[in-house]
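Write out the bound-state structure for phosphoric acid mono(formamide)ester.
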Amino acid sequence: MAFNHKHLIDITEYSADDIMTILETAKNFKQVNERRIKKVPTLKGFTVVNMFNEPSTRTRSSFEIAEKRLSADSLNFGGSSTATVKGESLVDTVKTLCSYKIDCIVVRDRWAGVPRKIADVSGVSVIDAGDGKHQHPTQALLDIYTIRKEKGHIGGQTITFLGDLKYGRTVHSLGYFMQQLGNKMIFASPDELKMPEEITAELRAKGADITETDDVKAALAVSDLVYVTRVQRERFPDEESYNRCKGSYIVNNELLKAAKKDITILHPLPRVDEIATEVDSYAGAAYFRQAHNGMYLRMALLGLITGRVQ
Ligand code: CP
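---
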């Protein structure tokens, strides 16, 4: 089925067919990355602006490498070195960048809704690279890619989302895709960090099979996958509420004794202390492979969204 999206902002606009198209395209780009010469001309003559107004290691670097390998021209823009610190508005900033005839903006911002606002004023393709506590769609796509690679399939499984489900934007996006692909979900979190009620209700209204619990051992005993998230310190209203939640769950070898055999452990990273480093040598610990997969996935998405890959 033809891929027909100009933006990746609202994940509910993406169908299961769209997801499969992205995953298959990513598989092709994986082969490109296995060659000695890894560069292809797919985006030659295209200009991509990476506008990162919030820290990032994986998303930013994998987008930048993806753009280089696709032969795009990239501008890395954002943070304290721009005229926004002098008071320039987001709209004026975007209008100025677009006057240079750019083709795509990849945006990360601490405020939810910024990617949509940029799409409304820019006229170019916009990819949400994480907006506040709202969504992180490219992470969810690389998570799905990883699940298929690790498990051999992406439907009919049980996944536990463990940790900060309130502020963790990756699970907000992944929950939607997991529902669409026919998986059961268990939301395991401290009470203060529960999945926002509106997200749980929306997923259930779409037919999702969701269980909420604070019994992590029981959740892991029936799960094929566990997706762990860090307590998102930067999004708490104050240090006191963060201190109440930090360290409230840790995946270690002792906890894994209660888990289903062959459970796959995912984490969007960065990790703080919620997965003990002793777990890294467990065969099902897939979080660094997951980060690696982001590069192919973002190459595929850039190719499809610009219309350069059919
Ligand atoms: N997973 C993720 O978004 O990581 P970064 O914040 O390093 O980009």
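---
The first helix runs from residue 16 to 33.
Residues 56-60, 130, 139, 268-270 surround phosphoric acid mono(formamide)ester (CB under 6 Å).
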